[in-house]
Amino acid sequence: MKEYQVVGKSVRRLDALEKATGMGTFTTDLVLPGMLYAKVLRSPHAHARIVRIDTSRAEQLPGVEAVACFKNTTRKRFNHSATMTFTVPPMEAVLDECIYDDVVRYVGDEVAAVAAVSERIAEEALALIDVEYELLPAVFDPVKAMEPNAPDIHTRKAGCFLCGKNIPGEKIHLALGNVEEGFKESDVIIEETFYLPVQKQAQLETQAALATVSHNGDITVWSTTQTPHPTRQILSHIFEISQSKIRVLNPPYIGGGFGVRIGLSAKAEPIAVDLAMKTKKPVKIVYDRKEDFTSTDTRHSGIVTVKLGAKKDGTFQALQLKGLLNTGAYCSFGAETIGVLGAMGLSVYRAPHMLYTGNSVYTNITPAGAFRGFGNPQAMFAIESVVDMMAEQLGMDAKELRLKNIIKPGDPWILPYSCQSTGLTECIEKGAKEIGWERRGKLNKPGDRLRRGIGMAVGTHVSDAWPFCGDFSNAYVTIQADGSVHVASGVPDMGTGTRTTLGQFAAEVIGVGMEHISVTIADTQSTPFDIGSHASRTCYVAGQAVMQAAAEARSYALTYAAKMLNEPLENLTIQNAAVYCRGERKLTLAEVARHAHLHNEQFIGVGKVIPQNAPPWLAHFAEVEVDTETGQVRLLKLVAAHDVGKAINPVIVEGQLQGGVVQGMGYALSEEVLFDRDGRSQHDAYHKYMLLTAEDMPEIKAIIVEAEDPTGPCGAKGVGETGQVATAPAIANAIYDAVGVRLKQLPMTEERVFQALQNQLN
Amino acid sequence: MKEYQVVGKSVRRLDALEKATGMGTFTTDLVLPGMLYAKVLRSPHAHARIVRIDTSRAEQLPGVEAVACFKNTTRKRFNHSATMTFTVPPMEAVLDECIYDDVVRYVGDEVAAVAAVSERIAEEALALIDVEYELLPAVFDPVKAMEPNAPDIHTRKAGCFLCGKNIPGEKIHLALGNVEEGFKESDVIIEETFYLPVQKQAQLETQAALATVSHNGDITVWSTTQTPHPTRQILSHIFEISQSKIRVLNPPYIGGGFGVRIGLSAKAEPIAVDLAMKTKKPVKIVYDRKEDFTSTDTRHSGIVTVKLGAKKDGTFQALQLKGLLNTGAYCSFGAETIGVLGAMGLSVYRAPHMLYTGNSVYTNITPAGAFRGFGNPQAMFAIESVVDMMAEQLGMDAKELRLKNIIKPGDPWILPYSCQSTGLTECIEKGAKEIGWERRGKLNKPGDRLRRGIGMAVGTHVSDAWPFCGDFSNAYVTIQADGSVHVASGVPDMGTGTRTTLGQFAAEVIGVGMEHISVTIADTQSTPFDIGSHASRTCYVAGQAVMQAAAEARSYALTYAAKMLNEPLENLTIQNAAVYCRGERKLTLAEVARHAHLHNEQFIGVGKVIPQNAPPWLAHFAEVEVDTETGQVRLLKLVAAHDVGKAINPVIVEGQLQGGVVQGMGYALSEEVLFDRDGRSQHDAYHKYMLLTAEDMPEIKAIIVEAEDPTGPCGAKGVGETGQVATAPAIANAIYDAVGVRLKQLPMTEERVFQALQNQLN
C-alpha cells in the first residue's frame, strides 16, 4: 500500500476551532446594513385553490416593505431539488413548482411572504393577509393516489411531466435475465412487503438564505444549500437572469444537510431573492423549526416488496423488487429516489435473474426528496429482512448465506459501471468477529423477560451520481509566493469535513503539511463549477479534481525548480514543503515560489474531473435487548464495518459512519413523521419528533476496511451516506433473533414490537 | 485594421448604473456586526523620539476595546508601497517602516491607534493618550538632508537599505554613449534647473480598510488598495502569517487611486488588522481628509537639471539629466520613482549621448510615493522646457525640432525593451492642427494686457513595470452552463473602467456581447495572482491574461461544438453567442454549454501573462491667456493627442486622458502642498489645496491615435498615466509664447508669473 504523508492521517479539521468555540458563521448569523426579514404564510389546508388573496392590510403595517404572493411574483416553474441541473436527456426533470401558486397542495405550502424591518413585524403582517380558499379533495395514501378517481394533484402543465395518475417522471424498470425463469429454477421463494415511514433529516440548521440584488440586477445569495453552483442555475432559471450575474455561496458554514438542500434550501433562496428584488434591500429568511419539519423535504415513505428465489444450497436465483414511494405534494427528487432504490437494491447480491419496477407518487403531504441513502435504506430494510428469512428457511447461517451470494468484481450486475473492488467479505468477517456472531441464538434462557439477539445486514452504495445524472467537479489550486497553497472547490462542507479532506489531497499531492493549506469552498464566484455535495461524491469526485489541480500546480513548481537547480525534472520531488534532488534537500517550496514570483510566474493548476463510479460496501451488526413485556428495544452494540476504499481522514470517516448509524438507528426504532386525517404533521418539532438521544446510544464500533478502488482518489470511495443503509435491517434481524418476531414496518417502536409479540402469542 | 465586435466600442461601463445612482459599495460603506472603529493618534512633531507613552487613560474610557502603539504591536519592518512584493534582485526593497515606531519622522506619523465602538469614542480616546516626546532636529530641504551634518532620519536597521546620507535605495545611473563627447560635438548647449512641487492625488475616497480575523487566525481585509494580491503579501510579511490565510479584496469599488495605494492604503490595512487581532472583532478605519493629505503618499517634489546639446541643424547630440527627489520621511516608492524619472526622460528623443544620475532623499515631510506618471511629469517639465528654449536659440520651430529628434523604432535608446511602434509624429501633427499651431507667435498685438500664447510638449511612458520590476497577470475565464461568461482577474477597478475593459476583451475573444459577461476583480480569494493596478498596466497586461484565458475557454467550447456537429474544428467560429459552421449559424453558445454541462464539462480557461512592454506616446498643446498685470494664467484650450495603441473602449480612454490632463493642469498652475518651518502641512484639506474646478476648465480635446503595438492586447498600450506627462510643459511653453517669461518652478501660480513678469521688466 502506498505510503502517504497527509492522506490517511486524522489531521485536525480546519473548522475545529471555529466550530468548537461557536464562532463559525452560518447563514442565520449574517447581518447586512438595511437588511429585511422575511416570513412565510403557509397553507393550513392539504389541497385548496386560492380564490382570493388580499395583502393590502399587511402592506400597510408600518415596517412592512413588501408582500409577495402568486399575483405579483413570477410563476416560472421549477423543481427545488437540483434535478433540473443534472438530469440528462432523454430523462426529463419534473418542474412542478413555482414560488407561490394559486393552488396549495399540502399543509405548509407557500401562500405568501412578507419582508419587514423585523421578524416580529413580518410575523404580525402574516396575520393580516386575507386568504379565501376553495377546498379541494386531498389524498394521502400513495396507493389510493394512483386510483383513477383520486384527485389530480398536478396537471400536465409545461414541465410537469407525468407518466400516469399522480405519477411524476418515469416508472423505473430494471431487468437482468428473466425473473420468471429464475423463480421457476428456485427451490425456495420468499415474498414479503415492507412499509417505510417518513423520516426527517432534522439537521441542526434550518433552511436559510440571505439575498441581495444590486442596482445592476446582479444577485448574491448566501444560503444553506449543499450545491451552490446548481442553486445558481436554478435561480437563473426562475428569475431568467444569466448565471454569471448570480453568486451563490455558503457563509461558509452550514449546519448539516443530509440531502435536505441539494438544490434550493427548500424555497429559502427564491423567496429571499424575489423579496430583495421587490424591496431593493437585502432580505434574510430563516425557517423556524416547524417550517423546517412541515415544508422541507423528508425521506420518502413507501412500500417495498421483495421476492427472492434460491436454490437449496443457498444460491440466489432470482430477485424481484417493487417500489412505491410517496413523494408528497411536489416531486423534488422523487423520480431519482425511486431509481436508486431499485439500482442499489439489486447491486448487493449476485443473481442471474433480477427485476425491479417502481414509481413515485404524489400525495398531499410534505414533499419527500433526498435524504442520506436516497432510497437505498428503504430497499435494504426489505431485502435484508428477506435474506434473513431465506437463511432461516434454508437452515443456513445468515452470514454464510450472504458471503455466498454477495457480488464479486466481474459478476454480472445491474449497474452501468463496473465493480472494480469490494471489501464486503472483509467487512462481514471483521464485523462478525467484533459483534461475536458465534453467540447468535445462544444468548437467552427460556423464560427470560429481557431477551437478546444479534442481527446483521449488508449493503452497498455509490460514490457519486454518474451515470444516473450529470456529475462533475472542477478545482483550482494555486501556490502563493510564500509557498502556501490555496485550494478552490465549489463543493460545500456541510459538516462532513470536506474542507479538511480536500486540503489533505492538495497537501499530499504537492508535498506540504496542512499548515500551508487554505481552502475556499462553496462560492460560485471563487470556484469553477462543481455539482455540489450529494450522492456521497464529495471526497470521491471533488477530491479527484483537487488532486488533479494540485498535480498540475506541483508540476509547474517542479519544472521551475528544475530550471533553478539545472537538474533534470525526473530527479526532483517535493516533500515537507521542500524540493529534493535525488534525496537531497535543495530548496524550500517557498524559495521556489518566491523566485518564480519575482520572475512573473504563479503555479496555477486546474482540475477537471468526469468521474467514474465505485461501490462502497458495508456490513452492519446489531445486538439488541427486547423487553418482551413492553416491546421496548434497547440497542446494546452496533458494529458498522465499511469498505471506504481509503480513509483519507480516518477520524472524519468514523464520524461519518457513526453519524449515519445513529440516523439508521432512529430510522429503525423511533423516527417517524405522521400526518393526521387532514394532512397535518403530528411531528413538527424536535420535542415531538423522536430523535434518539445520547442516552439511547449503544456502543458503536466503526470498522474501516480499505479495499482501494482504482477509480478513487488515493483509492477512496463514497462514505457520506453509507452509514445508514443497513442499520435498520440489522436491528430488525437482531430483534427477530431475540424474540422471533419479524417486523415489516419501520420504525420498530415499542408499540409495534409489543403488538407483534402479542400477535405471536395468538 | 482588424474588425472587432466589442473591442474598440464605447460600450456602457459595467459600473455606470451603480456609480450614477450612488449605490456602489465602497470600503467606507461596509458594516459588520460588532464592528469597531479605529482612529489614529498622529505626531505633532516633524522628528522626535517617544520617551514615554501612557495609554491607560484611553483604555479605561468606556467603549474603547484596544489601544495600539509601538509597545504592544509588532515592529516588523516593511514598506507600505508594493515595492517589497515586486522588487527584483539584485535590487533590494527599502523596509524602513513599522506600524508604530518609537521615533516619529514627520508631522502626521502614526503614534498610536484606538479601536472603539464608535468613531466619536475612538476620537475622544486619542486625547487621553499621554505621550512625551524628545524633539530631534528635523530637515525639510532635500539638498540639506544630504549634507554630512544633517540629522539621520533613518539608520541602517535591517531592511532599511541606505546608499548615502539619508539616501534610501540606490543612486540611479543610466548612460548611452559618452555625454561629455556629445557636448563637445554640440553647437548649442542649454543647461537649466527646474523645481517641482509636492502634488497630492486628492482622490475622492480616502484611505480605508475593514479587517476581520477569524478564530483560526485567517485574515480578511476589504480595503481601498490598488493591488489586492501584493497587499496580501505585505500583510503576510508584517504579521508573519502565510499568504494563503489572508484574503484582501475591494468592496468592490474604490474612489480613485492615482498611485496613492499601490501596496497598502497608507497604513489602513495593518492598523485595522492589528486592532482586529487585539480585539477579536472587525475593525474599520477610514482616514479623514486631513489624514489623507498629511499621512499618505504625495507626488515627489524635487529638482531636475537638464543639459541639452544640439547641432546647428537641430540634431540632438547629448542629453544629460540630473534628478533629486524628496521622498519625505519614508522611502515608499522613492527608489523606483527616481529611476522612472530618468528612464522616461531619456526615452523621448534620439541622441547618441545620454546620461542620467539621480537619487531620492529623506526629509521630515509627508512621504512621497507613486502618483500618476511616477517621476515622468517631473522629468518632462524640465526637458520640454529646455527643448523649447533650444528651438528658440536655434531659430527653429519648436514642433519641427521635436519631429526631427523624436525616437523612431530601431533607434538606440536607454530602455531594456524595444520600441516597436510610435504614433508620436501623428500625435504631433494632429494636435498641432487642432490647436492651430500656425497661429503661434501671431496672437497678440503690442500693448495687449491679455496676451495669448500657444505651447506644446511631448512625452512617452510605459505600459507596465516590466522589466524594472516584477510584473505579471493571471486570469480565469469560465463559460457557464447557459453560455454566459465569468471573468476573474486580480486587478482592481479604481474608477478607470478596468472591469468593463476586461469584460470587452473576454466578449471579443469568445464572440459574445457584453450582456453575457460578468467580471470579478480585486479579490485574492476569487482570482489568481495579479500584481495589481499601477504603471498603466491594467489593460495592457491583465487584458492579455483575460484574452488568453478567454481564448482557452473558447477553444474548449469550439472543440466541444465540433464534436456535437461532427465538423472539423477549423470550420467553426463563434459570433453573436452562437457557433457558426462555414458561415452558417448552427448552435447557440448556450446550447453548447448546456450540452457540455450535461456531459460533465465546463469550459475553463486560464491566462498567464509575463508581459513585454510598449511605449505609449503623447503630444500636448496648450493655448493660454496671461494677464500681464496680475500674472493670472487662463487656459483656453488643451489638446491631448495620444497614441494609445488601440482604444479598447474609446470613451473610457478619453476619460482617462481628460482626467490626466486636468491633473496636469493643476500641476502646472495651482496644486502644491507647502510645509511650514516646523514641517506642518499648510494644505491639508480640499478647501486649502488648490485643485482646479469645473470653472477653471478650458476646452479639452482628447485625440486618440492608434499605432497598434504588436505586444499589446488588440494592439493596446498603457494609457492610465500618460494624460499628465506633458501638460505642464505645454502650458509653460504657451506662457513663454504669450509673455516671454520662462517659468522654471511649478506650479506657475499667479504670484510666480507676476514675479517673473516683474523680473522681466527689470
Query: What's the helix count of chain A?
Result: 19
Say how many strands of chain A there are. Answer: 28
Poorly predicted runs of 5 or more residues of chain A:
none
- The neighbouring-strand order within the major sheet of chain A is 3-5-1-14-11-12-13
Output the structural class of chain A.
Answer: alpha+beta
CATH homologous superfamily name of the domain at 416-462 and 614-762 in chain A? Aldehyde oxidase/xanthine dehydrogenase, molybdopterin binding domain
Question: What oligomeric state is this?
Answer: homodimer
Which CATH C-level class of the domain at 416-462 and 614-762 in chain A is it? Alpha Beta
Largest interface: A-B, 58 and 58 residues
How would you describe the overall organization of this protein?
Two copies of one chain form a homodimer. Chain A is of the alpha+beta class. In chain A, the strands form seven sheets. In chain A, strands 3-5-1-14-11-12-13 form a seven-stranded mixed β-sheet, with helices on both faces. In chain A, helix 14 packs parallel to helix 15 and helix 15 packs across helix 16 (589-598). At the A-B interface, strand 19, strand 20, strand 21 and strand 25 of A face strand 19, strand 20, strand 21 and strand 25 of B.
